[in-house]
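Colleagues,

For the teaching module next term, I've prepared a clean inverse folding example: a structure given as tokens, and then the sequence designed for it. I'd like students to try predicting residues themselves before seeing the answer, so please don't circulate the second half yet.
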């Protein structure tokens, strides 16, 4: 399954990145910082999220509840409920994306594959009432049909390593 020495190595690299990320972004944050720190730090959340993808699990909920909380108590002694963990994951999206862009990209082997997928913001019947990404997301079309949101483009090599990724507005050309 997952080698426990690898978990420590991944956490160390992610934690070093998160410390630098926090130093860099601290002066640019808007609003007041939270009064209480979360029980799990950003480094732990990102490490668990990376382990989920490295472990070959299909469901994040089962991985967190039945593997992390049961078998990884030594590595992650203080865990939160799954609902709270998903809230913490949302707050870690920006540092995790920047970490992936700066430190986790594979090496081009000469054979690359590109694909894109739609990232829906809401269902089509709710486009008129939608307030999330109201002035950012657009109506787009994929092979599956129309959607409101963005397009995720990913390039991988023949080993399955991500070479690059980007999120773009989905614009329909008329």
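(Answer key — instructors only)
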């Amino acid at each position: 399954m997952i080698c426990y020495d690898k978990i420590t190595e991944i956490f160390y690299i992610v934690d070093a990145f998160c410390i630098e990320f926090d130093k860099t972004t601290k002066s640019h944050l808007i609003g007041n910082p939270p009064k209480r720190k979360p029980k799990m730090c950003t480094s732990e959340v990102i490490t668990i999220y990376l382990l989920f993808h490295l472990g070959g699990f299909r469901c994040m909920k089962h991985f967190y509840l039945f593997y992390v909380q049961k078998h990884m108590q030594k590595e992650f002694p203080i865990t939160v409920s799954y609902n709270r963990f998903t809230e913490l994951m949302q707050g870690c999206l920006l540092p995790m994306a920047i970490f992936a862009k700066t430190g986790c990209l594979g090496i081009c082997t000469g054979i690359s594959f590109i694909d894109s997928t739609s990232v829906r913001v809401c269902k089509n019947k709710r486009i008129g009432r939608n307030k999330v990404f109201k002035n950012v997301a657009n109506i787009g079309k994929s092979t599956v049909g129309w959607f409101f949101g963005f397009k995720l483009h990913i390039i991988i090599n023949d080993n399955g390593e991500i070479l690059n990724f980007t999120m773009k507005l989905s614009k329909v050309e008329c």
